[in-house]
């Protein structure tokens, strides 16, 4: 299929949209923010960045329509796209791969909404908006959880009463699956071996952070759980805490909603530093002598190193430890501090290769004789575009 493909990622008050040309070449991307408020606005990035006006209080459908109008008026999209790919956060146990969206699929996404109340409903809003803008175009759902449906039961079950799993689906699902799958695909391509024989540890470190053990092409352990709150320290999310904290805080007078919001939005790097969730800003603050920033970075790397150690228990060999996401791809310091704790596991960095992010080395940043360590840029949107194109072509 040589048509264009659109990729849509709807957040609660935002839309990220990307337009891909034939051969999945990215042509334009758009970001709409503050939807539903008087400050609703959008920018489109092609070779340059353009702000476009949105009506006050634009909702998702109006935001998408304005972006598509602009792409059409500027001759980037001259006919309906061949397919639209939607990022959907939670597919529960129903979806282990991307699917063409029909009514049964939208019903299932709705059913999974109690597992991802902040994400699935708004993902559905984006799907419905695009269905009404393009009623005859194949819409494809690509799930954050799908790649992790290969987790064995010893990895996905919590040590909780069994009926919580059976009755309510309480288990570890894992997220960022598209990015971890992208690491598998890219590393196996670089190593010129099939993905089914590639094993790695993939550390996706962006605003959200998760780590996955991939054994012979399959996700076998991952740090995020029932929700994206579990695991590593993230920008504003706490990651692992003692479950006893909930009772303690409730006895201190905090209600469950406040506790949940604080763990999701005011914790992690932001909570530890008392300042910001932005790693680049924290690194600067630490250089300027801010002790809270220094300890936030130290805690982030310590937790990450612990998890890398834990992930080794799921692998029989490791073709690479891979860093990706905004922090993983760009922070020399985080990689250095994390891997410095892993010498006993056989990982050592080459400082110069680390400083240049593996440029000219196929992303390799390890010292000679170490287990391999790579920096690989993630391309979740490209993965969604490719799935949408494939399923769109099968669905004509
Ligand atoms: P998202 O999960 O929202 O897609 P990103 O993957 O873009 O986020 O990651 C954002 C994080 O990457 C921020 O904490 C940001 O500070 C960090 N980051 C980006 N560039 C650098 C850099 N040069 N050094 C350190 N951290 C960086």
Quick structural summary:
One of its GO terms (biological process) is acetate metabolic process. With 396 residues, the protein is α/β, with parallel strands linked by helices.
Describe this structure in words.
Catalyzes the formation of acetyl phosphate from acetate and ATP. Can also catalyze the reverse reaction. ATP binds at residues 16, 204-208, 278-280, 326-330. Pathway: Metabolic intermediate biosynthesis; acetyl-CoA biosynthesis; acetyl-CoA from acetate: step 1/2. The chain has helices at residues 60-73, 103-111, 120-133, 153-156, 162-168, 177-190, 244-251, 256-265, 268-273, 279-287, 291-312, 325-330, 332-339, 351-355, 380-394, and strands spanning 5-10, 15-21, 25-33, 41-45, 49-52, 83-88, 99-100, 138-143, 200-205, 209-215, 218-222, 320-324, 373-375. With 396 residues, the chain is of the alpha/beta class. It folds into two domains: 5-143, ATPase, nucleotide binding domain (Nucleotidyltransferase, domain 5), CATH 3.30.420; 193-380, Nucleotidyltransferase, domain 5. An eight-stranded mixed β-sheet has the order 5-4-3-2-1-6-8-7. A hairpin with a 3-residue loop joins β2 and β3. α1 packs across α3 and α11 (291-312) packs across α13. The longest helix has 22 residues, at 291-312. The protein is globular and about 55 Å long. The site of adenosine-5'-diphosphate (ADP) has 13 residues, from α10 and α12.
């Amino acid at each position: 299929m040589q048509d264009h493909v659109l990729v849509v990622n709807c957040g609660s008050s935002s839309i990220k949209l990307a337009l891909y040309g034939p051969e999945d070449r990215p042509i334009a991307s758009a970001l709409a923010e503050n939807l539903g408020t008087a400050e609703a606005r959008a920018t489109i990035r092609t070779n340059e960045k353009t702000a476009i006006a949105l009506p006050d209080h634009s909702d998702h459908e109006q935001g998408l329509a304005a972006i598509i109008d602009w792409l059409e008026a500027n001759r980037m999209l001259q006919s309906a796209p061949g397919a639209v790919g939607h990022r959907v956060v939670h597919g529960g146990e129903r979806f282990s791969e991307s699917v063409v969206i029909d009514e049964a699929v939208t019903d299932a996404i709705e059913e999974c909404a109690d597992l991802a109340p902040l994400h699935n409903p708004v993902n559905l809003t984006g799907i419905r908006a695009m269905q009404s803008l393009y009623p005859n175009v194949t819409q494809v759902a690509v799930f954050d959880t799908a790649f992790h449906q290969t987790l064995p039961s010893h990895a996905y079950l919590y040590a909780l009463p069994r009926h919580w799993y059976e009755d309510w689906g309480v288990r570890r699902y894992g997220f960022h699956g598209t990015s971890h799958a992208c690491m598998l695909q890219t590393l196996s391509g670089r190593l010129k071996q099939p993905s089914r024989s590639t094993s790695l540890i993939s550390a996706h470190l962006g605003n959200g952070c998760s780590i996955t053990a991939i054994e012979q092409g399959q996700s076998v352990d991952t740090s995020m759980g029932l929700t994206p709150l579990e695991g590593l320290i993230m920008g504003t999310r706490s990651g692992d805490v003692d479950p006893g904290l909930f009772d303690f805080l409730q006895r201190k007078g905090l209600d469950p909603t406040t506790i949940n919001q604080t763990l999701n939005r005011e914790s992690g790097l932001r909570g530890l530093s008392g300042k910001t969730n932005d790693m680049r800003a924290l690194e600067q603050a630490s250089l300027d002598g801010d002790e809270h920033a220094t300890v936030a970075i130290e805690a982030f790397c310590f937790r990450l190193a612990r998890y890398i150690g834990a992930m080794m228990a799921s692998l029989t060999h490791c073709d690479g430890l891979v860093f990706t996401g905004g922090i993983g791809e760009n922070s020399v310091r985080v990689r250095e501090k994390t891997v410095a704790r892993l010498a006993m596991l056989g990982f050592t960095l080459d400082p110069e290769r680390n400083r240049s992010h593996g440029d000219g080395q196929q992303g390799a940043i390890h010292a000679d004789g170490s287990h391999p360590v790579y920096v690989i840029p993630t391309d979740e949107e490209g993965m969604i575009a490719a799935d949408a194109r494939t399923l769109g072509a099968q669905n004509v």
